[in-house]
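Checklist before submission:
- one chain only
- standard amino acids only
- sequence pasted in full

Submission:
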Amino acid sequence: MQHDRSQHPISVQNEKAIEAVLKEIVHPVTLSKIAVFRALGLRARSLSLPVMVGLVLSLIWRQMGSVCELARVVQREVVLWVPKTKVTQQAINARLRAMPAELFENVLEEVLPVMRARWAARKRPLSKVMTWVQSRYAQVLICDGSTLDALIRKVGLLQDLKTHPLAGRMSVLLDMASRLPVWIGHTPDAAAHDQRFWDDILSRVREGSLLVFDLGYTNFERFVQMTRQNITFVTRAKGNMAFRVQEDIVRSANVRDRVVWIGESDKDTTQLMRLVEMLYLGKWYRYLSNELDAQRLPAEMLIDLYRQRWRIEDAFLTTKSLLGLSYFFCGADNAIRLQLWATWLLYAVLVDVTDTVAEALKHPFADISMEMVYRALSHYVHVASQGEADDPIAYLVANYKLYGLVKRKKSPRKIKTDTPLLPLTDDDFS
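Returned file contents:
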């Protein structure tokens, strides 16, 4: 995949709407970091922090095949706020290896609150489950990890390896409503367990929030910690989890909602938990939460909330497949981290544009395809170059059917059963 990507020509041209967002929000942040840049002992040469941020963002957004191609492009045209510059591939690669990736991380951390404020200012309908949950919790977050793809053994120490090494593992804390990242972590150890990020995750979850995660994060000590910090969580329960029933809330042919004791008393992890089980298509699904009040968190809503965990998988798919985080321009650990932060920054910009389209179409964000918005922008570039359009959002909204911006509704699965199922939200697997 990576070798094939390096042979591709540029597939996305300059898009003024995206450039405007980046110049308005990102560029001022890069300028404010120049003092930090100099304090680290880095010289303000031609490839300074603002210039490198502009180059890397263009490299990713326009899907250039290589750093060599970027060097050619920047010599013949203005790239974001970077003027035409004669620079070599070697110089850019050296900067990718040497410029502290934390500088890009700091830029991302300052941009995200601005993006969240823009999202909060918009008026678009929310799905039933998001409307319900936002009125009851301070934050609704999802956490998960994903292994990064392999590196090509072309230069440096990688040439001596027998196999293509993986680029590490990332851990992400995502806002369920806005789809914007709250925090992104990275380790070069691709075999690292997701639980090594627990301290980083919980330090960023406010009291009164709700956190959704999968089985990989099962840790009874952390469950106790979250309960003490007044953090509600929803997760899947392991099939072999030992428990002792304290109280039956609901018990029917296809739904069991119980308060149970879990944990080991000798390790001070024993606590009361809520265990909700649902029979669906012949299989029992088990969910666990520290919210014991079935009035505050009904069983059907608890299940719906866990199903929304798939939103973070959508985010991983967007960053990897659409924005190219499955392809690394440089194999150095510093360059990998630098590309990681830059890709998630562009992901936040794409969320911002998609949400603007959702507001204009009066649809929930979940109804709009981020992938098709991204692809439709390239069509707009060609139309605008011919003088037939000058507003990308208006153009996308007017042609939303042509470009398939609104996701198609999936046909409901036919279930042969005599027992009623819990009501599920319309946008669960959209």
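Reviewer check: The beta strands are 140-147, 169-175, 181-187, 210-212, 232-236, 244-251, 255-262, 271-280, 283-289.
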